[in-house]
# Entry
Amino acid sequence: MPVENVTGPVAHHAEGPVWWPGWGGLRWVDGEAGDLLTLTDDGVDRMHLDDAYLAFARPRRNGGYVAVGAHDLYLAAAPDEIPHRAARLVDDPAVRMNDGGCDPQGRLLAGSMAYDASAGAGALLRVGADLAVTPLLPSVSVSNGIAFSPGGERAYYVDSMSHRVDVLEFADGELVERRVFAEVPAAEGVPDGLTVAADGSVWVAVWGAGRVIGLDPSGAEIARIALPVPQVSACTFGGDDLGTLFITTSAQGLPSGHGTEAGSLYAVRPGVRGLPVLPFAG
# Structure
């Protein structure tokens, strides 16, 4: 299937794409720059967050958005407003926040990792609408993508250094019964961000391998989308019909001059449609 380079290399480390009509369509982050990017008809708009790192952002149910920095959570009341610090998530200076999302109840699920990716130094946290923080999964190495099935009864989750995608049941508001959904052998790259389609298929960015893989609800591979750059970081469905898969890429870890299009946003039509993003209730 044909893949389109939408933006050219506009970011060093692009991550966390999210489609939300209320903020104008597609947004994603340039993590190490601390920038929130918005795709416009004229190109890309940038909003800078005064933080050492910008991990991801999600819309809020009542307008505005939530953003997660290196150690803090930020809130904005409007889509074009620079957010303010609202809660502390991590105190350890050797650890920073990474990828995340929201659960069907509107609580933020935010993962962390050590700056040096030390095994077991990260965690998956839950942030309620009242900004209370609850640890969910301790001893995570590189907490990455998390997304829910169409009915909201299960979650798919990546701890990248495990080289697998896990699935958990979402029962009575809790994530339980974690088990292996699919494995990505080390020789075939590292699983990173993911998204779920309306038909229940799971789409996983594979870092270091230059591809996104599609998995059916049993975990079997059903599609492989090749990208012209190796560091594929995350993906999400968007467009008016939620039928376009937007894919972020990164130049992180690449030698100078290698992969000149790294950091570009790509788009492809894989033949399935996505789900609306779950917003934050806080």
